[in-house]
Amino acid sequence: MSYQEVYEGWKSDPEGFWMQAAEAIDWDRQPSKALFDKGNDLYEWFADGLTNTCWNAVDRHVEAGRGGQVAIIHDSPITGTLHKITYSELRNRVARLAGALRAKGVGKGDRVIIYMPMVPEALEAMLACSRLGAIHSVVFGGFAANELAVRIDDAKPKAIIAASCGLEPGRVVHYKPLLDGAIELATHKPDFTVIFQREQEVAKLNDGYDFDWHGFQYGVEPADCVPVEGNHPAYILYTSGTTGAPKGVIRHTGGHLVALNWSMKNIYNVDPGDTFWAASDVGWVVGHSYICYAPLIHGNTTIVFEGKPVGTPDAGTFWRVISEHNVRSFFTAPTAFRAVKRDDPKGEYVEKYDISGLRAIYLAGERADPDTIEWAQKVTGKPIYDHWWQTETGWTIAGMPAGIEALSVKIGSPSVPMPGYDVQILDEAGHPMPAGELGAIAVKLPLPPGTLPTLWNAEDRFRKSYLSHFPGYYETGDAGMIDEDGYLYIMARTDDVINVAGHRLSTGGMEEVLASHPDVAECAVIGVTDQLKGQLPMGFVCLTTGVNRPHDEIVKECVKLVRDKIGPVAAFKLCAVVDRLPKTRSGKILRATMVKIADSEEFKLPATIDDPAILDEIKVALQALGYAKG
Ligand code: COA
Ligand code: AMP
Q1: Which pTM does this prediction carry?
Q2: Residues with CB under 6 A from ligand 2
């Protein structure tokens, strides 16, 4: 069947399409139907089925004779170690860990926060939660204690599973003090923690509260999989919104299993047994869907890579891993390729390795710039498929359906909508726009299985953020267009979210932190273009009257404050003190205009601007930071 036939097939019978896809999943009780309309624009998938995520990702493969196949390869150029875990071993390890958690009172519906680096134990912790029907929430290791505390207070976990440390090139990330600090800051106190001690740094455990990962598993009865309803939350993953309060995206069990399993063949074109690699982090949605769940649900071998695209030890790392583990499909972020390209523009490292087993490379997480795509195509000789999705959707909205039909690639476009997504471009009033015209990208409700049904404890925010602007649609927060051939183009965010090295960050969240500095009266954070990371945050602060301290001292404190409060991942290093911020007459800060000046782009002076002279002052500040030079 062609892509067109599959897409039309879904459109003419959406429920039949997903019921058929659901046959590839093991159910303890079959769902009676696919879609459950809860009214008021809320939908759930496979709600009355009973199933278990861990069973589908692990145990069933052992039962089916795949026990000896490698499930997880941990390849860590940072520690110089390689470790393989078969499906049988994985089942035993996860069942024991789940048994130990159960013995300490963790059960169905309890939340467990996981704060771990790129080690297989992070996946095992996720799977052990799924095994019990507990709801995990993984927090990225690059976030600071305060961000962890915010998530603890929102998710109210019974337990936290963490590692003693993470490893960044040249730096040990001390997880335990961050964890202790977060628990101290949080109002909600988890019952206990489990600490996976890494040999690179052993943490001090507090008796009776912190339990050693290995020790607490001693003598426990391994746990079996607990069947849960199709609409039982498998996990909560926090993502950046407009404000500093992150949004808790919920993933329901049934739809998650069905959609991810479908995506592995139809999008990533791998068969069970093949090795699949997503070079991301378990703390992001890509890590949830394509390091942990999808490859395992589909019976693939997945790679947990603890390293960077460059410097661990060189720009040949990706090609070494692909060659050594015979990776079939590879998924990374454009920023990673930009880093490799900078160190190895001619692709000399690629020639050192045999990557003939690789079929295609998939890019997502941020806009894939044509230069990077063309470079990757040239040096690897492989098709490069951009695809577009979000934490909220959990899997591809628009991409290349390579396992159905390899359509022609149009550079600059993540290709076409996947079955399940009726993507439309709308004008401000919600009317569909003609082909080729820019507008807000929206998806007609219902969203397909695997996408968010609502936000954790925040249905009103869910409606306000996604459903209220365009009734009957999910608002993606991205702007773009669809061409005559149905190819989608993603141009920009319509909100204050920025994308730094493929990491989604909230400028509003950073402004909240800057505003907490005692000398800052007012501030604005914008996202400026960066050759490597796509965007970088840049802050402008106006000082409280009477503050006479040296500006560079205050700037340093601001930079440190964001690093301490949000984390190193915010990559907040550009900041300037200015006298005033450009505003409209009604007092709205003209952030978009500031971005245009920084990036040396043409702009129209906003008609409502209060005092245009302020823009000159901003330009001077930008030039001092190395921007607005054009
Ligand atoms: N734990 C602790 N700190 C982390 C971290 C983690 N898991 N991940 C990143 N950080 C830190 C980095 O060490 C860096 O700290 P520094 O300011 O002390 O140097 C900071 O956060 C910023 O990180 P990043 O923006 O990732 O920059 P980098 O200089 O470390 O690396 C790239 C640059 C391009 C090589 C890197 O960004 C990269 O590989 N990105 C891939 C993007 C990706 O996989 N995105 C996931 C979405 S698909
Ligand atoms: P996240 O939730 O972290 O995955 O970030 C999702 C956002 O990243 C999207 O809403 C887009 O703004 C951006 N994004 C992700 N993939 C792409 C892509 N292929 N092209 C352009 N932007 C992308």
Answers
A1: 0.96
A2: 239, 285, 364-368, 386-388, 390-391, 414, 477-478, 490, 493, 499, 504
